[in-house]
Amino acid sequence: MTRRLDLAMLLLLTFSTGMVDAIGYLGFDKVFTGNMTGNVVILGMGLAGAEDVPVLRPALALVFFMIGAALSGRILGDIGEAWHRRTTLIFGIVAAGCAGLSLYVGLVPDPEIGLAGTIFTSALSALMGAQAAAARKMKIADVTTVVVTSTIVGLASDSRLAGGSSVRWVRRLLAVILILLGALAGAATLALNQWIGIALVAVMIAIATIIGHRGQKRAHAEAAATVPSNA
User: In the Cβ-directed half-sphere of 158, how many Cα atoms lie within 13 Å?
Assistant: First the structure.
């Protein structure tokens, strides 16, 4: 039951990643803050001199994503696959950080322009890197929260059409659909205001954090209840 709960939470975070990437790409000068593969491609085209393709923000997004992932990995250490209080700490920081960025975007005039936009995309990339590192520690196959290319490959290559057994096809399909729907939702929020989408992301991550933390406490309580008393 605990692993199913972890899977559900990571699928929710996959949806939120679709939102932040749509907001970053459409609202902040073609920058992905969750999917670093997209940033690498954009950076390559920009360095080649392609017209209207940014270089600075994608490069900084890559750097800060790695910094966030490194710090998260350092904090988490060797905690294993189960949800840990350090997992709660990381996701809590990410949720609080996204809430702070939504406030930042709501208060700063023209937050997508110049230094203000660069600060936003860099900070959000660091948070997404921390989240991705925490999700990776949980080792839920085919759900990384930040990229679905390998998931699509697995979905197709292991399908019955390809002579496979269609292993884990439900979660793979859900991951693809949810990141698509997240991008749709993120793009829709831009029509209202930029801060709204980030605020919704903060709420989703906070919900996942609370559910995961409570699930961990319940699992520990159940484990303690099964230990024979020495009395």
Answer: 15
Please compute the mean of the pLDDT values over residues 79-99 and round it to a whole number.
91
The answer to whether the beta carbons of residues 127 and 119 sit under 8 Å apart is no
- pLDDT tens-place string over residues 130-149: 999 999 888 887 787 887 88
Q: Which pair of tokens denotes residue 2? A: 């605990």
Q: How many CB atoms lie within 10 A of CB 109?
A: 6
**Burial environment of residue 85 by CB neighbours within 10 A (0 to 12, 13 to 18, 19 or more):** exposed
pTM of the predicted protein model: 0.90
DSSP string for 163-196: TS--TTHHHHHHHHHHHHHHHHHHHHHHTT-HHH
Spatial contact of 201 and 16, defined as CB atoms under 8 Å apart: yes
d(CA 133, CA 125): 12
Contact 137, 42 (CB under 8 A): no
Instruction: Decide if 65 contacts 36 (C-beta within 8 A).
Output: yes
Please count the residues of the chain. 231
